[in-house]
Structures are given as structure tokens and as C-alpha cells.
């Protein structure tokens, strides 16, 4: 039976439902140290720690999503749910994470989820929240792309891009927020946008993908404003050209040469995304919301 798709039982607050902040205490010559009882090394570790956190990663069974899901575990996430439409990839991802465990006590589960299916999303998020007794982190990596000339773009293909990249992100984020609000908890959401949401990323023609990722930028900002009163932060990251199966292979050799000519730092590695993701999910990023972090090697400088 699908989870209730109605509004959460907790009080729904309107946009920017916060009081005018109090004046800060008088400043000190040297700012106070947070957690003075800890050593500098322990404070540095705690700043980016995700110890004991519980997370969902959509599209986490492959590519960029898998690498960032792995980073969450490395920084202390104890309970992780991987959502992916590909069951085979999900099973291989579980094997991969199990091979890295080496005494760690994390627990991981996989759910085959189509992020465009509202009932499936609501049910999966609710079941994971019940199993984990709460949820605090959501990474949205489920996404698709394709290159087609706008004058020839089939309408069904155009709609499919938006169904996965925009509507899918919305459905999962909404289900996550409902669970957090119902439990009177707190959470952080990181969407995966793209530098293509800022620029016309030539020469490949992918108007649908670019517009969908621009939509993800504004979806993050809109949700950040709406949910700030519920202690839910919402941000996005915008990768540039990354070294994945989409940019590899003989068929992409010509494009890679063009990308390298335009990218001051070349082509990125999926691992290059993990620092920003951990920042946005950890105590170090607790005052960041409604922000997009470009991770494009300087591609959009010019």
C-alpha cells in the first residue's frame, strides 16, 4: 500500500517563517572556539563529520551518485538507502560497499525506485524513514541526458528529461521533507544540477537537459526559502565535464578535445564532487542554504 501522499501531520509554516534575529553578543578580540574541550584535530574532524547520520541517495547505484554515497559512508553516515531504477546496478553497488566495510558498522539497503512514480517514491521514502527511525540527508543524483537538435526534439523525449531531472527531484525532496516535518526533525537536501544550467554547453545540442538543470537550480532556491522554518536546508551542486561513461569512449573523442580546449582545469573526476557534498551535509555547512556550488574546473569563467 502506498504511503499517504497528503501533507505531513506537522504544522506547515509559510515561507521565511522566522523572527527577526536578536543582536549578537559583543564581539571578542579573538572569536570564541567552538567545543573548546576538544583538540584542534578533533574539532577539524567534527566539522565535516556525518557520524550517525541517516541518508538517502537517488541514482546512488552508479556513476557520480555512487561515489558521493561512498563519501557519506566514509564521513560517518551509519544508515544509507540507495534508490535506483536499475536493480542490477543496485545489487552491484551493495557488493561494492560491502567490500569496503572493513569493520565499519554501517548498514546499507537498496530500493528499486523510479523517481518519476509518485506512489513509488512516497512509499520508498516512508519505508526507509520507518526502518531507520528518521532521516536527515537526501542526495538527488537520479538524472538523464541526451543530445538532440531542438527542431527535431520528440516531445515525449523532452518531457521525459523533465520528468526525471525536475519532477523526480521534486517528488523525492517533497517526500523527504514531509517525513522530516512530521517527525519535527531537521535535514539537508543536495540536488544535482549542472553547469549547463548556466551556459549553453556547446557543441552538443541538449536544450532539454540544460533547461531542466536550470530548473533544478531554482527548485533548490524555492524549497530552501519555503522550508527554512522547518530546519531543512536545500542546496545544489553543478558539475562540469566529469570523467564518467557519458564522457568516455571512442564516440566522444572529438567532444573531449573541444571540452579540454574550453576547460582550464580539464575534465573532473567524480571524487571532485565529494568535498562540496560533505560540506553541504555537515556541520561545516550549517549556515548554507539556497546556494549552488559550481564544480566545473573553471569551465564557466569565460
Automatic annotation (TrEMBL):
Family listed: Belongs to the short-chain dehydrogenases/reductases (SDR) family.
Highest taxon, organism lineage: Eukaryota
PANTHER family: BENZIL REDUCTASE, DEHYDROGENASE ARBD, PUTATIVE-RELATED
Zinc as UniProt keyword: no
Keyword Oxidoreductase on entry: yes
Pfam families from the UniProt entry: adh_short_C2
The name this protein goes by in its record: NAD(P)-binding protein
Region (Disordered) residue spans: 1-38
Alphabetized UniProt keyword annotations: NADP, Oxidoreductase
Amino acid at each position: 500500500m502506498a504511503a499517504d501522499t497528503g501533507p505531513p501531520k506537522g504544522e506547515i509554516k509559510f515561507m521565511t517563517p522566522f523572527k527577526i534575529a536578536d543582536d549578537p553578543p559583543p564581539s571578542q578580540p579573538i572569536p570564541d572556539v567552538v567545543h573548546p574541550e576538544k583538540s584542534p584535530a578533533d574539532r577539524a574532524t567534527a566539522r565535516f563529520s556525518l557520524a550517525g547520520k541517516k541518508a538517502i541517495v537517488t541514482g546512488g547505484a552508479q556513476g557520480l551518485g555512487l561515489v558521493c554515497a561512498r563519501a557519506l559512508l566514509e564521513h560517518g553516515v551509519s544508515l544509507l538507502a540507495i534508490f535506483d531504477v536499475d536493480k542490477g546496478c543496485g545489487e552491484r553497488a551493495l557488493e561494492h560497499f560491502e567490500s569496503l566495510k572493513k569493520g565499519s558498522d554501517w548498514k546499507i539497503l537498496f530500493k528499486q525506485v523510479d523517481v518519476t512514480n509518485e506512489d513509488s517514491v512516497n512509499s520508498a521514502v516512508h519505508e526507509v524513514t520507518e526502518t531507520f527511525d528518521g532521516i536527515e540527508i537526501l542526495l538527488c543524483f537520479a538524472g538523464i541526458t541526451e543530445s538532440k537538435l531542438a527542431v527535431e526534439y520528440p516531445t515525449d523525449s523532452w518531457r521525459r528529461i523533465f520528468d526525471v531531472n525536475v519532477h523526480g527531484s521534486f517528488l523525492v525532496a517533497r517526500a523527504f521533507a514531509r517525513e522530516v516535518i512530521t517527525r519535527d526533525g531537521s535535514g539537508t537536501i543536495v540536488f544535482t544540477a549542472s553547469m549547463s544550467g548556466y551556459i549553453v554547453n556547446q557543441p552538443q545540442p541538449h536544450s532539454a537537459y540544460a533547461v531542466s538543470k536550470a530548473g533544478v537550480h531554482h527548485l533548490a532556491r524555492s524549497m530552501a526559502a519555503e522550508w527554512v522554518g522547518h530546519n531543512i536546508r536545500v542546496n545544489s551542486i553543478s558539475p562540469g565535464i566529469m570523467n564518467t561513461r557519458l564522457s568516455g569512449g571512442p564516440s566522444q573523442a572529438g567532444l573531449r578535445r573541444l571540452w579540454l580546449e574550453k576547460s582550464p582545469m580539464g575534465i573532473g573526476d567524480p571524487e571532485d564532487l565529494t568535498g562540496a557534498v560533505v560540506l553541504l551535509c555537515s556541520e561545516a555547512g550549517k549556515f548554507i542554504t539556497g546556494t549552488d556550488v559550481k564544480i566545473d574546473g573553471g569551465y564557466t569563467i569565460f
